[in-house]
Amino acid sequence: MRVVVVGATGHVGSYLVPRLVAAGHQVVAVSRGTREPYHPHPAWAQVERVVADRDAEDAAGTFGARIAALEADAVVDLVCFTADSARQLVEALRGRTGFLLHCGTIWVHGVAAASPLTEEDPREPFGPYGTQKAEIEALLLAEARRGGLATTVLHPGHISGPGWPVITPLGNLDADVWHRLATGQELVAPGTGVETMHHVHADDVAQGFQRALEHRSAALGESFHVVSDRALTVSGFARGAAAWFGRDAVLRTVSWEEFRASAGEHADASWEHLSRSHSASTAKARRLLGYVPRYTTLQAAAQAVRSLAERGEVDLGGAEVPLL
Hints:
- This protein has helices at residues 13-22, 54-60, 63-68, 83-93, 128-145, 176-183, 202-214, 216-219, 234-244, 256-263, 267-274, 283-289, 297-310, and strands spanning 2-6, 26-31, 48-51, 74-77, 99-103, 151-156, 158-160, 186-190, 196-197, 199-201, 223-226, 232-233, 250-254.
- It is α/β, with parallel strands linked by helices and 324 residues long.
- The protein folds into two domains: 2-159 and 199-226, 3-Layer(aba) Sandwich (Rossmann fold); 162-198 and 230-278 and 297-310, Alpha-Beta Complex (UDP-galactose 4-epimerase, domain 1).
- Strand 5, helix 5 (128-145) and strand 6 form a beta-alpha-beta unit.
- It is globular.
- The two termini are 35 Å apart.
């Protein structure tokens, strides 16, 4: 197929594009042109590159037509964040492109009402990100189910891997969390320590998109969770990460009020992640697409932290993250 990947040099696209090239697809990589992929790969030499400022072109009402003019068999949209942006793309692609795959988020679920969450559970999102992604999902799946543009939505968890910061066991991006776990210092956690987070390696998200592309009849009009094999609790994640360094996690749980007083700018991110307490099922993606995550949460996080340390963005007190 001729596949257009929008947001091709980001976290997921950096893995997806080489996967598609290796599978024999013709790939057009659309990005703002401000950075290279996170990981160099020979496959990029075979990729057509298109530079586009989506925000500006959405505002001008031209982005959809720009993508439609690329005459793709399928479009993978990794960077759509509003229903209006999705609507413009759908209207431009309808009748011209055969398949649109959208990157959503497990945050469409809002606060978890069951565990593990399934794709059929009622959507009760809160906050701009989850709410807008839920609106996009509803728009795209309604389009497919009424016989319009064929669409599929994939919902990743917290995307992790080498090259960018990873959500810590406290549900934020505070690099000091990794330092404390590596050096055996106390880690102050809000709540009870049993709140859950569900991570996923970026390459496993890419795997999900590749499988959906190649199992179109099963994917059409459906949404799928693409996450690691299991979610981890705050305490379980902290213990697992401390074990990288041969240490036990020294975890002290406190009230949210006390945590906010000490965590400063990182407190809001912790609340956003931990209050949802997500654990998502991959049963549907496994059954219909053959999706099998390669990386556990701890393996994905270890790659990310090792990369951060190599770039001097986190101080592990001289310790090293093992290759898991």
